[in-house]
Amino acid sequence: MKGTQNILELKDHIGIIPTAPGCYFWIGKENKSDEEKILYVGKANNLRSRIRNYLTSNDYKTNFLMKKAEKVEWIITENEVEALLLESNLIKKHSPPYNIRLKDDKRYPYLCLTTGEPFPRLIITRKKINPAHFYYGPYSDARAARNMVALIHRIFPIRKRALKLPLKTPSRPCLNFHIERCLAPCAGNVSRDEYGKMISEIKNFLDGNNRNIEVSLKKQMEQFADRKEYEKAASARDTIRDIQTLYQTQNVHEDTQDLNFDIVALLLASPQEMEKELDIEKDSIQYSLYEKDFILAQCVLLRIRNGNLINRGVYILSESALNASEGNELYEEYMNSFFRDYYLLLPDIPEQIYINGELKSKLLWEQLLKKKKSVDIQIIDKMNSGWAEGYNQQKNLMEMAEKNVRLSLRERILGEKIKNQRYGLRQLQKFLKLKDLPFLIECYDISNIQGKEAVGSGVTLRDGLKYTSGYRKYKIQTKDTPDDPAMMYEVLSRRFRRAHEKKNSLPDLIVIDGGINQLNAALRARNELNLKVPVISLAKREEEVYCEDGTILKMDKNSPGMLILRLARDEAHRFGVSYHRLLRDKKSFM
Fold first, then answer.
1. 3-class SS of residue 110
2. Contact of 75 with 67, CB cutoff 8 Å
3. Element (H, E) at 238
4. pLDDT at 346 over 50
5. Looking at beta carbons, which pairs linking 577-584 to residues 24 or more positions away fall under 8 Å?
6. What is 255-413's CATH number?
7. Contact between 454 and 479 (Cβ < 8 Å)
């Protein structure tokens, strides 16, 4: 049964919505010019209660959605498990913009064993999953997927050419057959049963069952050595080493050598929490780029098969949670999204899945995953009664996963910061019409009170980030009355004199904290020594940029380029004020 209600009418007619389980979807326009589309899909055990919550919520994100939504539709289901499955199908079909997803999930590659073909191949794919084939992954690192395919091609003579087999007329075998890297099913050299046995061995290998493969390769190596085929024996030996290298550092523990399970660690953090908990400097996180209540979400998955850690995946989830506010509710929303986008697509579901928080809907997921795999699936969270007494090895792995997710999120933020800084530098180059990219930027400021204890400060940004080795302090020697331009002239004269004497080099751009008068003083100091370095000044009040030719430029104050200039200006001011206070405090104690 399906129903629809206009938002304006909904408040007065909320009673028409059924109290049954099902799915609901808010429909509207992202922008005024857009066509109407599904904005968000959710599930509920009681549709009326859940939809009513949207109309009375004070949550920022929920209110944001309600401003865009024009109507709501719902579909009732027999139970909550069916609602969960329907929600997954609707999200995959419509890709609503405000649902949490594995971020850019299409980019994650899978290893696909094309078991839907008479003679399967092993390929890397990012395409939609075909139920006839067998998939491993997704791999968060495409290089790891390629390395695994290359290793399997070395061990197993599986076909590589994309042919539709069997052919009506057998073809000539390719070079892979002649170097014993393919059984040549295209030439009719192998039966489907014999080829299928090899495919079963590949499945076992991908599941972490490498012991039988090693034994087989050792026998081959010995046979080659007995026949004095030393090159082939060396190749078999190298393959054994590759397998051992792959698995020796990934053996979990003797107690778990026959177990298959996953460890899932989810980390949710605001930019402020990232600064505090992950030891990231405040200016490494650009708060102005984040919306209110912004949440960073990342997941690390450890896949253990037969006691071997066969895959470590790092997955980014889209930073949006429109029907969850904080704490456990937010964790529930994101973990549900991970299960939906990962496990509902994955044929290789282990018997146990360990997670690092409480999941209220775990019984629903256990039922749904059991229906998918036809075996009992157990989801074990930290609230599980047995967690404190048992699962010692799983606890250790969970600690490792949690450390990994923190480090990976830190690396991601810093990586995005550097990427954003590079974009900002290119933006500055174009905006200021600079010949070179401003890789090195110096910024100067004057700090004093009525000319007393006057100091100058110079800070350096390298690649858009603070470079403290390039910070310099200047004690003003020529003035003891208020005259910022004259003080700026003194500081820059001393700086340029050292460059003129070849004692240090010039940066790609010099920024002056101040207006046109301070800029003119800096230009006079530069021109007296016939040096060539672009100089601009940045005024605080209107964030205006004063250029040498007299033009005044305005840039979006939150653009990456302007954020770099503001960082330089604010850091020069902070550094100068701290030095000025130090001198003033020293004098007060004399």
1. strand
2. no
3. helix 230-248
4. yes
5. 577/447, 579/447, 579/455, 579/457, 579/473, 580/447, 580/448, 580/449, 580/453, 580/454, 580/455, 583/453, 583/455, 583/475, 584/449, 584/452, 584/453
6. 3.30.420
7. yes
Give the separation between CA 148 and CA 123, rounded to whole angstroms: 10
Which residue carries 């030393």 as its tokens? 230
Kindly state the tokens that stand for 272: 């402020």
Q: Note the pLDDT tens digit of each residue in 135-186.
A: 887 777 777 788 888 888 888 889 988 888 888 888 888 888 888 789 888 9
Counting beta carbons within 10 angstroms of the beta carbon of residue 279, is it exposed (0 to 12), middle (13 to 18) or buried (19 or more)? exposed
Radius of gyration of the chain (CA): 32
DSSP state, 400? H
| Matching fold, domains 2-98 and 433-588 | no
What does the alpha-carbon distance between residue 491 and residue 473 come to, in Å, rounded to a whole number?
Answer: 9
Which helix (H) or strand (E) segment holds residue 423: the answer is helix 392-432
Please determine, looking at this structure, whether the domain spanning 433-588 carries the CATH number 3.30.420.340.
yes
Q: Can the peptide bond before residue 534 be classed as cis, meaning omega within 30 degrees of 0?
A: no
CA 363 – CA 573 distance, rounded (Å)? 57
Report whether 392 contacts 526 (CB < 8 A).
Answer: no
DSSP E strand boundaries for 132-224: 134-136
State if pTM tops 0.85.
no
Question: What residue ranges in 395-499 does DSSP mark as E strands?
Answer: 440-449, 452-462, 465-466, 472-475
* Helices and strands (H, E) in the chain, number of each type: 16, 20
**For the chain, what are the domain ranges?**
2-98, 106-209, 255-413, 433-588
CB atoms within 10 A of CB 422: 15
Residue 201 · residue 113 · CB < 8 Å: no
Q: Which CATH architecture has domain 2-98?
A: 3-Layer(aba) Sandwich (3.40)
Cross-strand partners of 535: 510
Which residues is 31 bridged to in the sheet?
Answer: none
| Averaged pLDDT score across all residues of the chain | 82
In this structure, what are the phi and psi dihedrals at residue 442, rounded to the nearest 5 degrees? -115, 140
Give the C-alpha separation, 129 to 117, whole Å.
15
Dihedral of CA atoms 182, 184, 186, 189 in degrees, nearest 10, equals -160
CA 188 → CA 165, 179, 424, distances in Å? 10, 17, 60
Digit-coded pLDDT (tens) for 44-82:
999 999 998 888 887 777 888 888 888 899 999 988 888
